[in-house]
Design brief:
The structure is a homodimer of 239-residue chains. The first copy, chain A, is of the alpha/beta class and 239 residues long. Chain A has eleven helices and six strands.
């Protein structure tokens, strides 16, 4: 366990950790399907396929194969491919743009707003997401997520898990990496943050990928804090 | 007048426009003087001298004479010089550091929090200040300033009035410059924003420099909105 008094800022992964991307994509996909009379699409599979293109799309930016490109643009390109893969045609550009903005309209996990509100009394709370600033701002306004700052990939012009994403965020918060606690439901994100000197808090989000068994082993990794949700995290940090 | 529906984001100058830097420096300077038995300093003059070194310090970064340097560091260097100029000696480094952080502890003008809270219901509110992110975050937490995003100079790595500061902030907000309304009490800031395509709102802060007549002529400039304070601005934008 860490001494909560040594922490200045909590930095958050967002997709999957704070908000439930899968349910949001299903919700808006099904609404579009009803409006357009589309009946053959499994929107859970659609959500997984769209999200599945996330890492390879960022990878082309991370390697320098293409210049800095925001996640909104990467999402839009992936969406076009997934619509073709699922044989969804006949959508106007504006309808595709609107579906792409579902990432701006994701709902938080039920404990998130209350947990963040408690944590914010004591700590600086910042996003450290691969989502671009406008996406994070829209999401936060809609869902009342009480961030002190929207930082992360776009501000650093590096996608996680590049170390620059973590280190630039810490520097802008005026904090040493050791004074930052990275909060995520994903071991790879925490491992990359930890390699930069961040403290790490694993929060379990077993429903992120829907009804399937969560990957095992994550809790055995040496995270500084392991919490079942944000309320438990607030308890463990004395908030 | 502009059509409020064409605006997505309000971007704010902060020092002088949202917070009263002069009173804050006097307040903490006088407290330090009492604690240390310093009796010969006019803290209003001290505040003006410190603030007076702001533009030249940033200018050396803007011209490339020195690499990117945060305002906290520029303030600290200027403070050392102003302490010498006012013949204040005998302070420990930690005491100077603490006085330097007065910029993180400035109080808002009396109408600011209520006005911002009203404006935020309709618009994205972002800082577009030369203050660094950590400074803005500390100030916002202490004073309950309800920003949606902390952007501006450090994120753009350019000090105002460089156009990059305004244009990077707009781009990160996902807004065209024309969909951003720059709010400031300073004509130069508004003129630079306007040259980038921003809409402009002049807010009068006659007490920024203490008991002296405000510079004339500012209201005659072609700003899109002229408001007496943030409550008046909210009225004019239908919030």
């Amino acid at each position: 366990m860490i001494d909560p008094a040594t922490i200045r800022a909590l930095t958050f992964d967002v997709f999957g950790t704070v908000v439930d991307w899968r349910s949001g994509v299903i919700r808006d996909g099904e609404a579009l399907a009803r409006a357009k009379g589309i009946q053959h699409v499994d929107w859970g599979a659609f959500a997984a396929a769209w999200r599945g293109r996330y890492l390879p799309a960022m990878q082309r930016v991370r390697t320098g194969e293409r210049p800095w490109t925001t996640l909104d643009v990467l999402h839009r390109e992936s969406l076009q491919e997934v619509l073709a893969e699922f044989d969804v045609g006949g959508l106007a550009d504006g309808e595709i743009d609107d579906l792409n903005r579902v990432w701006h309209r994701l709902d938080p996990w039920p404990d998130a707003v209350e947990g963040l509100t408690r944590l914010r009394r004591r700590y600086v709370l910042a996003t450290l997401s691969n989502g671009n600033v406008a996406l994070m701002v829209d999401m936060a306004k809609r869902a009342a997520l009480p961030w002190d700052a929207i930082l992360g990939a776009e501000v650093a012009r590096h996608y996680k898990p590049d170390p620059e994403t973590y280190l630039t965020t810490a520097a802008m918060l005026g904090a040493s990496p050791e004074a930052c606690l990275m909060v995520a439901a994903h071991g790879g994100d925490l491992a990359a943050a930890g390699a930069c000197g961040f403290r790490t808090a694993y929060v379990s989000r077993p429903d992120e990928y829907g009804p399937r068994p969560p990957r095992s082993g994550t809790k055995a990794r040496p995270w500084d804090v392991v919490a079942s949700d944000f309320l438990d995290l607030a308890d463990r940090l004395g908030c």
